[in-house]
C-alpha cells in the first residue's frame, strides 16, 4: 500500500505540500459491514481499503463482519469450522459474528439474514465484545447494519453510513418484493435509520436524489468508488501503429469478451446470452468468458447448453493477486445491468476495467448514472437494455476496430487516474471524517 501521510493526499489540482496538516479522524473506529475479504467482489475490497487506510493513519480500527460467503450462498470452505472470535487481516482486527447466510435470493431470505446479523451485533454489544466507539462507519447494504451502528456509537461520537445499494429500490425494481406493504416498510426503515446518522456517503448524485425522495434529510456527500491505479494498470496494447481503424483478420479468436462478477438478478446476464447467440450467427471468431459465482450459475450453464453457445465458457473467480492479469485477459468487457436496478447501484468493476485500459459495453438507459459516466469519460459504449441487436453491433464494432479499443481504453485510464484513484478519493473521505469528528 502507499506510504503517504494524510496531508500528502491532495484533492485534484492541489499539490500535497500546499495542504495544511490533517489529523487522524478519531483514535478508534468500528467498521460494520457484511462484506469483507476474503470475499473477492462486491463491496468487500472497498471496505478493506478503508479499514486499512484508517489503520495506517493511526486510527485503531476494528471491523465487525460475518463469515464470508458472497457471491455464493455457503460459507467459504476455510471458514466452515471457524468458531467465531477474531483474526487479523493486513493489520486490521476483524471480528467475525455468526449470522445466517441467505440461502435463497429472495428479499425475505435476505431480510432474515440481515436481521440475524443485527441480532448477532446486539449480542456482541451486550456481552462487551462490541464496545461503543467514537467513530462508527456502517455499510449499506444492509440498512439493519446501519441501525446497529446507531446503537454502538458513543454518546458524543459520530456515525457515518456508506450507501452502496438502496435496498428498497433494488428489491422493487427487480421484482424481488411483491408486497407493496413490505416495500413501504423498507422505505420507512431506510428513512428512519438514515436520518439518525451524522453523515451519509453515496456513490452518485443520482443515489443522493433517490434518498432525498425517500425523505432522508441528513447531510449527504457523494464519494465515488475508488480504484488502486498503482496495482491495476494497462498492458502495452498489441495494435497496428497506424492511426486508422485496425481491421483484425479472423484467426481462431479475434477477440475475447469477458464478464467478471456476480451471477445474480441485477446483473441481467440473460442479455449477454442473447447477444452471444446473435454473435454466433454472424461470426465464430469471438470467445466469451463468464467469470464469477452466484445464485444463477447453474441456470446460466443450463441456458448456455440449451442454446448451444459454442464460444461461451463459465469459469470461477480469480484470487486477488491475479486481478490485474484476469482483467487484461479480456479485450472487451461486458457490463450488463437490469435497468430497474441501475438507479440504485453502480457496478464497481467498471473502474477496475478502466484502470487496466480496457473498453467495455454496458446496458444503460439515457440519463442513468452509467449513461452520465459515459458522457464524462468517453471510455465505453452504452446500449439500451435488452436490445440484442444494439448490444451485438457495439461488440462487433469493438472486435473489428482495435484502434477504437485502444482509444477508449486510454480514455478510461486517464479518467480514473484523474478522478477515481484510491489516494485521491480515500484521502478526501478521511479529511471529511476528520472535519466531522472535529465538530
Automatic annotation (TrEMBL):
Q: Which GO terms describe its molecular function?
A: hexosyltransferase activity
Annotated CDD domains = GT4_WbuB-like
Residue ranges of the region described as Disordered: 1-23
Basic and acidic residues bias spans? 1-10
What InterPro entries does the annotation carry? Glyco_trans_4-like_N, Glycosyltransferase_grp1
User: Domain of life, per the record?
Assistant: Bacteria
Q: Report whether Cell inner membrane shows up as a keyword of the record.
A: no
Q: Which SUPFAM superfamilies match?
A: UDP-Glycosyltransferase/glycogen phosphorylase
Domain Glycosyltransferase subfamily 4-like N-terminal residues, every copy: 42-226
Keyword annotations for this protein? Transferase
User: What transmembrane ranges does the database entry give?
Assistant: none
Q: Which PANTHER family match?
A: SULFOQUINOVOSYL TRANSFERASE SQD2 (PTHR45947)
The name on file for this protein is: Colanic acid biosynthesis glycosyl transferase WcaI
